[in-house]
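Notes from hallway chat w/ T.B., transcribed later so I don't forget. T.B. wanted the structure written out for a chain they're using in a teaching module, and asked if we could keep both sequence and structure tokens in one place. Agreed to drop them here.
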Amino acid sequence: MQTPVQSAAARPAPVAGQADSVRAGERGIVSAADPRAADAGAQMLRLGGSATDAAIATMLALSVVEPQSSGIGGGGFLVAGDAAGHVATIDGRETAPAAADPRWFYVDGKPLSVPEAIPGGRSVGVPGSLRLAALAHEQRGVLSWRTLFQPAIRLARDGFVVTPRLYMMLSRYPGTAGFDPAGRALYFGEDGKPKPVGTVIRNPALATFLESIAGRGADAFYSGDNAATLAAKVGTAPRNPAPMTTADIAAYRAVPRDPVCAPYRTWRICGMGPPSSGATTVYAVLKQLERFDLKALGPDNPVFWHLLAESERLAYADRDRYLADPAFVSVPVRGLTDPGYLAERSRLISETTTIAAVGAGTPPQATALLAPAPQQEEHGTSHFVAIDRNGNAVSYTSTVESAFGSGVIVNGYFLNNELTDFNIVPDKDGLATANRVEPGKRPRSSMAPTLIYGPDGALVMAVGAAGGATIPAQVIRTIIGVLDWNLPVARALALPVLFAPGGDAVYIEKGSALEAMAPALQALGHAKVTAIEMPLKSNAVVRAGERWVGGADPRSEGAAVAQ
């Protein structure tokens, strides 16, 4: 598992109007991984825009200021809810080209390693971000499409400052960021070193292209010169060239999906269904813990973290066997969220011992005989939340997968390496894996944009995270912090993270309070407790009385900005 280190103090300068709370019903708020992007969303709210308008403007601005993480060369998932509790989701996950097959990442009969597979053309999926944005805008946008692009265009044209986090990522992944000559010219000096913190970077190619999309709509991305250039660069990349056609790009569609909504204690948890594994995994962990008095245990008790580890082990085992693109695999979503099934799984959890061997269960409606297999997960990801004055909310996670994606640049933006989120080896023990590569298929993701409603039906929380397979774990600890422990959102987002992705391995956040609890966890039976640096980056907005309070993980550069 890749785990890029983050700087706890890596924050850009504040933007005008930055605030972490607003009065509900009077003003809106945006929380994002970069205050300049959050401000782009808040600008839309100031103009009378909807939460959807704000979220789209935030995504576009992140394409400029956070090129290592997300943007128009990637994809994402959007969960939208109104004040009455109606929830809808859109799947903008990237797709494999028509030429793809289960052995897409094999060379001379042998599978590539993930690091070998990432750079160049073969890892690139057809991007979904702009089709997602266009569909969301059609459904819930208020402002003009062109208006949403203006902050991002200004940032690309007039320049943005290199932050400590961007500099760190350029230093950590110079081979990817500088893979393409355009990337080297933008982000590195003549000495070959990343441009230092405080440097103003201008991206005129991206500014011009964003102006084209603002005027012509998403078709400017999926047809014409951009599509031809994209296909050509994927097909002629100096490493891992692969066939992608303009027909593959033109055929891309964002897909409305049914949300996954289910009760946890007195709340209703809603999230993104397959091909995301986020909602089912988050919900399973919470529901399996529901019978325990988490409030009494609290965050300082090793028993809580033991219980969390056991619940994650069970949920991730089910995730690895069953979750994939529902157009290709029958995913038993109802079974995976069935209260009876999760109660049965919960009975495997003990406060005093560990489960000796964790395997996937057999939820209701599970029909496919598939092999469980984890896969490489996204590390170039960003989450953001927007709530407008009418109480409409959007929780949106966007990604290019690894840092700087595939390293290939078209019109100033990085193309994703999302296809390495498939299982590179397509079968295990003679059985196909659910998440193997297939033409037109969308790879499984851990992204978990989430909305939570209270017993009165009103929205109480919007949350999500970035950080690959740790995303559900980050979202879960924040939810428990706010709902079970009544912590302010800032404190909940600052809680340490424990990640138990199956088997008997338990990872705890290096440098956190969990390190002191490692002996206690080992005494409870967790033999493999390892402290590691984790790619943590969460954002949330919570209802606190008559106010919306926004927060961002203190390990990130994130901020909440009011309109």
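Follow-up for T.B.: The CA atoms of residues 282 and 472 lie 5 Å apart. Might be a good example for the class.
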